[in-house]
Amino acid sequence: MTLLMILAPLFALVLMTLIIGIVLASRRTPLLLGGKVREQDISLRQPNWPAPALQAGFSFQNQFELPVLFYVLTILAIIAKHADFLFVVLAWIFVLTRIAHAYVHCTNNNLQYRGAFFAIGALVLMIMWLIFIVKIMLGLP
Fold this sequence. Notes:
CATH topology: Four Helix Bundle (Hemerythrin (Met), subunit A)
Distance between the termini: 14 Å
Strand content: under 5%
Oligomer: single chain
Number of strands: 0
Mean pLDDT: 97
Number of domains: 1
Low-confidence stretches: none
Largest sheet: none
Order of helices and strands: HHHHH
CATH class: Mainly Alpha
Shape: elongated
Radius of gyration: 18 Å
CATH architecture: Up-down Bundle
């Protein structure tokens, strides 16, 4: 596997996080500038935003939770030279579930779909970690 093939899913996830940040800013800024939300009502992270702004905010925050384990694993897999074809396939599955999760979170926020995408992604990431741990602990290529 080339470095680009290994890093492509990571780059996609970073790009998605940046896009959600832009969506978040586009939802919050007009509310503040238009006086619909007062600074003192949100300055200490009070959830006093309208639902669409809260959804984007929570979705953005989610990108710094479970995906952090993915970023660390990708870096470790590169360093340990354990980023093979299976790793890249599983990485793309994880990233696609994160994109679907974020899309649902920022749009209709259907908890059934959002939960399913989260669970599938978490399971895939768990499998990726278990494979990596076994390979390292047993000294496998």
